[in-house]
Design brief:
About 50% of the residues lie in helices and about 15% in strands. With about 260 residues, the chain is of the alpha/beta class. Strand 2, helix 2 and strand 3 form a beta-alpha-beta unit. Helix 4 runs parallel beside helix 5. It starts with 9 loop residues before the first strand and ends with a helix. Bound molecules: NADP nicotinamide-adenine-dinucleotide phosphate. NADP nicotinamide-adenine-dinucleotide phosphate binds next to helix 1.
C-alpha cells in the first residue's frame, strides 16, 4: 500500500539503472511522480521506462549520463529542462566503491571514486539549485553511507568520498534553510545490490556481512517515504548508527577494537 502520494511531483534520480536507484524509481512511479532517470546504461534505463510507463500514468524520461563527466552533466540537465518544467526532488544516488588498502588504490581509482561520488553529486546539485532557490522549494536527497560516518579498513577512499558527501550536505542544509529547500542524507549499511561486484572483488565482505545485508526494496522505501518531508538523515539499520555515536564519543577505543572487528573486507 502506498504510504504517501507523490502525485505530480517531478523527481530526478541519478544511478537509476539498477540497485536502490531503480527500486526508488519503481516506488516513485507507483506513487504518481514524474521521473527523469539517469545512468550510463541506457538499455537498462529504457527497459525500466517501458516497464513503468506500462504500469503507471506518469511521465518517464531517461538520459544517458556519466556522472564523472561534468560537461555531460551540464548538457543533460539542459536537456532535462526541455522535458521537465521544474525539478521538485533531486536524488543524488549514483556511486560506487572499490575496497582496497590505501596503498593499493591506484590514482585513477581514487580520482574516479571522487569524480562520481563527490564531484558528480555536487555538479548535479548545482544544476538544480538556482531554480529551486528561485521557487523557494525543493528537496535534495544525497545517498551517502554508514562509511561516511565510520571509516573501516580497506575502505579509506570510499569512506573519504562519503565523508565528503556528508560534509557538503550538512553545509548545504544550512545554506538552503531560508530557501525552504530540504537536504536529506541517507546512510545505509550494506545493501544486497550489484555494488559489491565492483567493490568486493574477492567476495570476502559479502560472505562476512551476508546476514547484515539490507534489501534494496526496503532501503528504497525508507528513502521514498522521506520525500516531501523535512527529514535530515536516514540511518539504516538504526542499530548501526549506534556505532557512529560510539565513534564520536570514544574514537581511540573505537579504533583499537574496530581495526580488528571491522576488518571484514
Ligand atoms: N550497496 C551498498 O552496500 C551501499 C551501502 C551504502 C551506500 N551505498 C550507496 O548507494 C548508492 C547506490 O548504490 P547501489 O547499492 O544501488 O549500487 P549499484 O546497484 O551498483 O547501483 C549503482 C548505480 O550508480 C550508477 N553509476 C555508477 N557509476 C556511474 C557513473 N560514472 N555515472 C552515472 N551513473 C553511475 C550505476 O549505473 P550505470 O552503471 O548504468 O552507470 C547504477 O545505476 C551509491 O551511492 C552507493 O555508494 C550502497
Amino acid at each position: 500500500m502506498d504510504r504517501r502520494t507523490l502525485n505530480g511531483i517531478n523527481i530526478v534520480i541519478t544511478g537509476a539503472s539498477g540497485g536502490i536507484g531503480a527500486e526508488m524509481a519503481k516506488l516513485c512511479a507507483a506513487r504518481g511522480a514524474n521521473l527523469v532517470l539517469l545512468a550510463r546504461s541506457l538499455d537498462k534505463l529504457k527497459q525500466l521506462e517501458t516497464e513503468l510507463e506500462a504500469q503507471y500514468l506518469v511521465s518517464i524520461d531517461v538520459f544517458q549520463l556519466d556522472i564523472s563527466n561534468t560537461m555531460q552533466i551540464q548538457t543533460v540537465f539542459q536537456q532535462i529542462s526541455t522535458v521537465m518544467e521544474r525539478i521538485d526532488i533531486l536524488v543524488n544516488n549514483a556511486g560506487f566503491g572499490i575496497f582496497r588498502a590505501a596503498h593499493e588504490a591506484s590514482i585513477s581509482e581514487i580520482k574516479e571514486m571522487f569524480a562520481v561520488n563527490v564531484v558528480g553529486l555536487m555538479a548535479c546539485t548545482s544544476m538544480v539549485l538556482p531554480q529551486m532557490q528561485a521557487r523557494r522549494s525543493g528537496q535534495i536527497i544525497n545517498i551517502a553511507s554508514q562509511a561516511g560516518k565510520i571509516a573501516t579498513p580497506k575502505s579509506s577512499v570510499y569512506s573519504a568520498t562519503k565523508h565528503a558527501v556528508l560534509g557538503y550536505s550538512n553545509a548545504l542544509r544550512m545554506e538552503l534553510y531560508d530557501y525552504n529547500i530540504g537536504v536529506t542524507t541517507v546512510n545505509p549499511g550494506p545493501i544486497a545490490t550489484n555494488f559489491f561486484e565492483i567493490a568486493d572483488e574477492q567476495g570476502t565482505y559479502v560472505k562476512n556481512m551476508q546476514r547484515f545485508m539490507l534489501q534494496p526494496e526496503y532501503v528504497a522505501r525508507k528513502i521514498v517515504d522521506s520525500m516531501l518531508t523535512n527529514k535530515r538523515e536516514i540511518n539504516l539499520p538504526r542499530w548501526m548508527n549506534l556505532g557512529s555515536v560510539a565513534f564520536v564519543l570514544f574514537p581511540r577505543m573505537f579504533e583499537r577494537v574496530g581495526r580488528r572487528v571491522l576488518n571484514k573486507k
